[in-house]
Amino acid sequence: MRFFLTCAFLAGCNGTPADSGPTVDTGWFTEPVNPECSDTVLTTFPSAGDDDWYWRSPPVVQVATDDQEDYAAVLLDADGNTVETSPRWTGTQLVLDLAEPLTANADFTLRTTDCLGRQDIAFRTGTLGQSLDVPTSELTGRAYAVDIGRARWEQPPGIGALMNLYFSDPIVIGVEWSSDDVLDLLGGQALVTDDGETVQYTRQPTWDFPIADFNTAPYFAATAPSITIDFNDVQLIIYNFQLTATFSADGSTMGGGWVSGLGDTRYLGPVLNQGSNPNAACNITAGFGAECVPCPDGEPYCLPMSARDAEGEWIPGLRLERRD
To answer: What does DSSP say about strands 253-264 and 234-247: parallel, antiparallel, or unpaired?
Structure first.
């Protein structure tokens, strides 16, 4: 709404009178739209007033047209200094890739420019990214239940609701060893009992993560060659499974989780009501513009998968046991 209010005071918007031209219903009142001013910012991520922006997420500006030269965006810190970013266009989105992670629990301003002029979007990062209050060694032995069912699935398109539905139980990430330099993780499936207790699903093998660099604490990135997730008696194999996240300062949670990999969808037919059809998932996602690619064995049933905003919670008393 501020864009349209600004337009009335900018010569470049020609001062369109309230009784002429097309209008837009803002939900509060109807405002005139200058037909000559179409290169506008539609929305931003973060939005004004956000106070829990993830410290490693690049700001994104969604615009109305593909006239890239008519838009600009810059990130400023609390003192008005420019934060180093690399602008990158993807379709009609302007992404400000960060040169360095943002300071946690700090104020920033996303300044955008379009045909209506300049707008400052003030926001604040959350507490994730603050230094650990506990020794890194204290994380050893802890297990975190990560609810990927509630994560925001980005890939493959059109199948996110299905992933949210069938990932009804969390996965569990156990810390085998942690120090100031390295982090050794073990993963596996979990079950939530009728009493609400999270326990390891011991009938399924655990997943080995090679030792990861932890010099970036509280942030980490770990990759497993492959994991197998069993849900509703259907197996989903994800190759090159990557998990990145940030531990909270007290080590009780992990947040900002991003999971990705190459999912072998050939066995998903039953949950898609297509029997044993190995192309079931591929056929569905093709309608959304996503094509299956060859799996490591050469069969054309794999899809890139990724989800953001996965959250993990330390479950005291649970320690992940290695299973083959």
So the answer is: antiparallel
How many alpha carbons fall within 13 Å on the CB side of residue 11? 0
What's the longest Cα–Cα distance across the chain?
A: 73
**Residue listed under structure tokens 């959350």:** 126
pLDDT tens-digit map of 198-245? 999 998 899 999 999 999 999 999 999 999 988 767 888 999 999 999
- Alpha helices for the chain (secondary structure H): 2-7, 160-166, 280-286
Contact 218, 186 (CB under 8 A): no
Q: Are 110 and 44 in contact (CB under 8 A)?
A: yes
Strands 117-124 and 107-114: antiparallel
In the predicted model, what is the mean pLDDT of residues 70-92? 97
What does the angle CA 54 – CA 116 – CA 84 come to, to the nearest 5 degrees? 35
- C-alpha distance across the termini of the chain, in Å: 58
Of 69, 38, 252, the closest CA to residue 145 belongs to 252
Compute how many other C-beta atoms are within 10 angstroms of the C-beta atom of residue 258. Answer: 20
Q: Which residues contact 90 (CB under 8 A, 6 or more apart)?
A: none
d(CA 29, CA 25): 6
The residue ranges of DSSP E strands in 125-273, in sequence order, are 143-146, 152-155, 171-178, 182-192, 198-200, 207-208, 212-213, 219-231, 234-247, 253-264
Please give the pLDDT value at position 117: 96
